[in-house]
Amino acid sequence: MTAPAFIAAVFLLLLTPGPTNTLLAVAGGSAGFRRSAHLIAAEAAGYLLTIVPLATFAGPYLAAHPIAASAIKLCSAIWVLLLAARLWTISPAGMGAPLVTFRQVFITTVLNPKALIIGLVLLPHGSLQAMLPWLGLFLMIVLTVACLWLSSGATLIGRANGEFPPLLRRIAASLLLCFSAGLAGSSLGLI
């Protein structure tokens, strides 16, 4: 794959709405861009933790063991379902704490199916040294797209009197529920 094709493919994949992007938009909308910017590091670390091992040695294993790949998707579905439930049920009294934490973004990204696509399909396989230029490009794209999602959340969702509106929390929770159902259906071969 050429560098421009890699950049375009990764950019479009990461720009697509998903669990991590939903969390970033919610964080931007509830806490603002500057107070949520640290979540970009959580996303980058989560992707690297998943894609580097996939591209260096796990790809052949998962190809030979589809049940393991399905189990990973099912774990992702369960995690996203838990995030949706938390976002749906959080009370206004519990709103003093951030709606979205570093840990949540990190774990969601580690379990994100996009990481599987990047690590198994888009990123060239081989030694870590050979992958470094590609990982650098990847991290620049992650930074760019994460900034777009945080900015979108901060701008479009905004804050109403310093509070994240309950209706928007419920909409975000519903989106996460849909992502969870899609992941579960895919892991079980229903979709």
TrEMBL record:
Q: Main site of residence?
A: membrane
Asked if the record carries the keyword Transmembrane helix, the reply is yes
Q: Which UniProt keywords apply?
A: Cell membrane, Membrane, Transmembrane, Transmembrane helix
Q: Where in the cell is it found?
A: Cell membrane
Its placement in the membrane is given as: Multi-pass membrane protein
- Tell me the superkingdom of the source: Bacteria
User: Membrane-crossing residues?
Assistant: 44-64, 71-90, 102-123, 130-151, 171-190
The name of this protein is Threonine transporter RhtB
Q: Which organism's genome codes for this protein?
A: Rhizobium herbae
